[in-house]
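The pair is quoted verbatim underneath.

:::
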Amino acid sequence: MSEPVQMEIPPQEQERQPGVQDEMRPQPVTVDRAYRGTGKLNEKIALITGGDSGIGQAVAWYFAREGADVVIVYREEHRDAEKTRELVSAEGRRCLLVAGDLADPAFCRQVVQQAVDEFGRLDILVNNAAVQYPQDRFEDIRDEDLEQTFRVNILAMFYLTRAALAHLAPGSVIINTTSVTAYRGSSHLVDYSSTKGAIVSFTRSLALSLAEREIRVNAVAPGPIWTPLIPASFDAEKVDEFGEDVPMGRPGQPEEVAPSYVFLAANDSSYMTGQVLHPNGGEIING
């Protein structure tokens, strides 16, 4: 991996979740041109939710560089999604874009079917999409935001996984994105942190459930990573200070997180299931 660059992040805000990468300054770093693929995922088919930007876009590119074709699921950020397709195509791999609402169980079933219709099978499921609606006071959490957070962040994982299992053969992999907040909590993201804690339990329990089928289930718990979710969630002042409170003193870039997904998707992690990796800038969370 190339040496990470210390970026100056100016104050900025976006009005809608989950945010648009194309509007961010500076742009998140989602690819590492120095990274050499070795065919670890040759001819694999991966479905990645939230793959249009941020960590999802980085995972799509790394998977493609390792030889996988990818299906990208996103809400409506079409410019970001097209950028992801360009990055994947430049690696000589195929990329199917599917836009829609993961909070809808019918759409989740449709996504899996489209992936199988397009590529003939499914080998890797990356449950990554998420939203968050910060509130300083617990009483101010709105019912509609609470329900949307749970529907997108954890219920969609149930919907997609349930649909995908009919197509996942022995040796397939499921990777879930949780968060450092699942372990240390967050006073202004109580609902979001609760979903991320649920994802940890979901990962561990699903791993036990699927072990006999030889399907591995693991997770990644990123710390403060510079993605569209940040300016779409916080005010300009908080964005300006984002990531400065971790031991490494800076936010991480998506390209620093994506190799964890490659490791969990590849045979390198063949003796791991029910586990969580922690690219979080040095926070010790004992999880």
